[in-house]
Design brief:
0% helix
Length: 109
């Protein structure tokens, strides 16, 4: 996300995380990055134990940003061989459950 206008922003990244296989606990971390640098204290973690379980993991911040700042959502997993990470789900007769919902709103100058 490239910021268009200076100001104070509320940023919320909510990821549906889980795993598709394996029997080892997998830690999934989700955090924010600004201009290539990690945003302090924005990391969150979920421990996923069972295949097909999902958890919503939320990283959020209120912070001043400048025009042309770049905001990214970052993710890591502790076990790369078990399908750990963001999970998109399409339930029958219901709306899609997206892998991630990213919201950003300017709340002040």
């Amino acid at each position: 996300m490239i910021i268009n206008q200076d100001g104070t922003y509320l940023i919320v990244a909510a990821g549906q995380v889980g795993k598709t296989s394996g029997n080892t606990t997998c830690n999934v971390d989700l955090w924010l990055r600004q201009n290539g640098e990690f945003v302090p204290n924005s990391n969150t973690r979920a421990a996923v134990n069972t295949a097909n379980d999902t958890i919503v993991l939320v990283s959020q911040a209120i912070m001043p940003l400048k025009a042309n700042d770049i905001i990214n959502t970052m993710m890591s997993v502790s076990a790369s061989d078990q399908g750990c990470g963001l999970i998109n789900t399409a339930p029958s007769s219901e709306p899609n459950i997206p892998a991630i919902i990213f919201s950003i709103v300017r709340i002040g100058n």
